């Protein structure tokens, strides 16, 4: 679907110079001289490169629609992660770096949403929040106030985060996967 260059919004996937790009930030600029344009910061969905491009209202770009499909994480194999299509039970192996830091939060049997372009996986979305167990937590330093201080902790998956002073080793907590931050104590 063709759209005007000034209609690009953050999150849109567009085809530009023969590759797929996700619009990260957009800014409409109206200079004193000349026509208005849209300044777009884009990230390549295939290799992670970033670029800034100016699109005038007269320019058109191809907006790409991605298919989403439910998959289940099965296991990690070397630098690859194996997922199963929940409808066809077909397995697909993806490189770990496609998920970035969020890959540490994958657990066997976790349901994920995969974005596909022409049957090719582009990105994997994990649940926003997951439950983890605190493997290590520093002792509380006497004199710290509970409201303003956080202490370092290591989760059972090896990720380091900051937690409130009352959290101790063995506690189950809810963690925001993408911010890698403590949310609350698990029920």
Short précis:
The chain is an all-beta fold. The protein has strands at 2-4, 13-16, 19-29, 37-44, 50-56, 60-63, 67-77, 80-85, 91-95, 111-117, 120-125, 129-137, 151-155, 160-163, 172-176, 181-185. The chain has a six-stranded antiparallel beta sheet with strand order 1-6-2-3-4-5, with no helix packed on it. Strands 9-8-7-10-11 form a five-stranded antiparallel beta sheet, with no helix packed on it. Strands 14-13-12-15-16 form a five-stranded antiparallel beta sheet, with no helix packed on it.
Supply the CATH class of the largest domain: Mainly Beta
Low-pLDDT runs: none
Going across the biggest sheet, name each strand in turn.
1-6-2-3-4-5
* Count of the separate structural domains: 3
Number of strands: 16
The SS-based structural class is mainly beta
Largest sheet: 6 strands, antiparallel
CATH topology of the largest domain, by name, is SH3 type barrels
| Overall average pLDDT | 87
- C-alpha end-to-end distance: 46 Å
Could you state the order of secondary-structure elements as H and E?
Answer: EEEEEEEEEEEEEEEE
CATH architecture of the largest domain: Roll
**Rg, alpha carbons:** 21 Å
**Which strand-content bin applies to the residues?**
over 45%
Number of helices: 0
What is the 3D shape?
flat
Helix content: under 10%
What does this structure look like?
- With about 190 residues, the chain is mainly β.
- The protein has three domains: about 1-65, SH3 type barrels; about 65-125, Beta Barrel (OB fold (Dihydrolipoamide Acetyltransferase, E2P)), CATH 2.40.50.140; about 130-185, OB fold (Dihydrolipoamide Acetyltransferase, E2P) (Beta Barrel), CATH 2.40.50.
- It is built from no helices and 16 strands.
- The protein has strands at about 1-5, 15, 20-30, 35-45, 50-55, 60-65, 65-75, 80-85, 90-95, 110-115, 120-125, 130-135, 150-155, 160-165, 170-175, 180-185.
- The strands form three sheets. It has a six-stranded antiparallel β-sheet with strand order 1-6-2-3-4-5, with no helix packed on it. Strands 9-8-7-10-11 form a five-stranded antiparallel β-sheet, with no helix packed on it. Strands 14-13-12-15-16 form a five-stranded antiparallel β-sheet, with no helix packed on it.
- A hairpin with a 4-residue loop joins β13 and β14 (about 160-165).
- The protein is flat and about 65 Å long.
């Amino acid at each position: 679907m063709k759209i005007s260059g000034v209609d690009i919004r953050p999150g849109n996937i567009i085809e530009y110079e023969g590759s797929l790009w996700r619009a990260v930030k957009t800014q409409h600029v109206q200079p004193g001289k000349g026509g208005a344009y849209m300044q777009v910061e884009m990230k390549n969905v295939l290799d992670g490169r970033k670029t800034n491009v100016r699109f005038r209202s007269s320019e058109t770009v191809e907006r790409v629609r991605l298919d989403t499909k439910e998959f289940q994480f099965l296991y990690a194999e070397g630098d690859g992660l194996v997922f199963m299509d929940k409808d066809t039970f077909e397995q697909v192996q993806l490189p770990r770096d496609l998920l970035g830091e969020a890959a540490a939060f994958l657990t066997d049997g976790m349901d994920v949403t995969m974005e596909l372009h022409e049957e090719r996986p582009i990105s994997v979305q994990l649940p926003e929040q997951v439950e983890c167990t605190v493997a290590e937590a520093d002792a509380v330093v006497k004199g710290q106030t509970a409201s303003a201080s956080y202490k370092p902790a290591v989760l059972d998956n090896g990720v380091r985060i900051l937690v409130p002073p009352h959290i101790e080793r063995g506690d189950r907590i809810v963690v925001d996967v993408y911010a890698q931050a403590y949310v609350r104590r698990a029920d």
